[in-house]
Amino acid sequence: MSANVTPPLDTLEQDAARALPALLERSYARYSNFTVAAAVIDDEGRAHYGVNVENAAYPSGTCAEQTAIGAMITAGGSRRIAKVLIAAGSDAVVQPCGACRQRIAEFADEACEILSVQGGEVTTRTPFWGLLPQSFGPRDLD
Ligand SMILES: [Zn+2]
Q: What is the pLDDT of residues 44-61, one digit of tens each?
């Protein structure tokens, strides 16, 4: 048996969903108090986490999805996103903003899903490409 068995994606999904509520406490949402935590699960079965980081110069703030994608790239290895999990401190169902949809599109695989997390559990599941149809992406520059 291999020592490097990757857990099934659904197990990773559950683990990532359960990790997000605690991560919300690390969010830097000084101005809006709208805390967000995200997990990006790559196609090699690794989870990468991020939180929103606001800034006194408001447009300089970053979304949780953006910081999670940065963590994936920084980790090396796969750059293909299988799932993005998102939780908000308000416990609202949150979908990625327009800018993050474009950021996710850069790395999303064909079956990429967006999962909303409430109370550490996945509550909604949305096919990513339905959120950004006919998008501009890397293939347009090939
Ligand atoms: Zn965003």
A: 999 999 999 999 999 999
The residues annotated with a catalytic role in the active site are: 65
Q: What is the largest CA-CA distance in the chain?
A: 53
Domain covering 9-128 in this structure, CATH number: 3.40.140.10
CA of 7 to the centre of ligand 1 (A): 28
pLDDT tens for 103-112 read 999 999 999 9
SS3 90: coil
| pTM over cut 0.85 | yes
Query: Residue 94 Cα, ligand 1 centroid: separation in angstroms?
Result: 10
- Pick out the chain residues at pLDDT < 50: 1-2
Is residue 48 classed exposed, middle or buried when 0-12, 13-18 and 19+ CB atoms within 10 A define those classes?
A: buried
CA distance 61 to 21: 21
Which residue is associated with the tokens 């599941």?
A: 125
Which residue ranges make up each domain of the chain?
Answer: 9-128
Q: What stretch of H or E contains 42? A: strand 36-42
